[in-house]
């Protein structure tokens, strides 16, 4: 099999046979005016470092350009992107700030999350205040840039010789929004090593309990798992067994596995109950994990330094200095 990714006039291709890859390259260069740049190093603003152990993707150059653009290239770094327990709200008593500048910073941070899941929650939280941001919002946005200053060389490593099994984690922070009491859902999926799919989003409805917030989060993660299974099947990586989806709330797991609509679930929007159908069809298997091992926790709230660093490491986010020597062209 050969896999080809095309974006405008940039082409990246890979496969399991050197003969097939060379044949594809030869045919393409005969039909189109093309330049062979060799082993992949950069693509769409992302850096790619290939080692004997696997592949490391990062956005170090882009991160440096952000700091220079916003005048923070010489700023003092911080160890975590958000103060512990930080919960922003629309009206916080501080004056309004430059809305255009704020949007530029948050938009830039959102693009940086392509290889930096450790700032996903911070960027998602800040994006809720694009209209009428205050000086406090701007201060937190610049704090995230100061965190980037201390982690410029960080990226995600995907290692080889791991079992190719899709694994998911889902979590929520009940009523975390100060403005409308809505919860935040977070999920992450890995395929043998570092995470490759993640999200941090505010839920569309108000959850009446922690269990309901976790249930809604699990439903969102289930939809993503089904789509990822479909994509992996196209790539020849059929997931024969149910995808394990780890949740740290036993009540939410019981609600997912119990088809009876009782007092605790009858008010929940029916669209979230398709998780039960996915369970019956064997697409997913919701399992319990301890809160300490819940990777998606980093996508739902601001965490203390030790907890944040531990989950960042578990996600596969690490500095380039931790890698071996790069493979030459």
From TrEMBL:
Residues 2-82 form the Reverse transcriptase Ty1/copia-type domain. This is Reverse transcriptase Ty1/copia-type domain-containing protein. It comes from Pyrus ussuriensis x Pyrus communis. The lineage of its organism: Eukaryota, Viridiplantae, Streptophyta, Embryophyta, Tracheophyta.
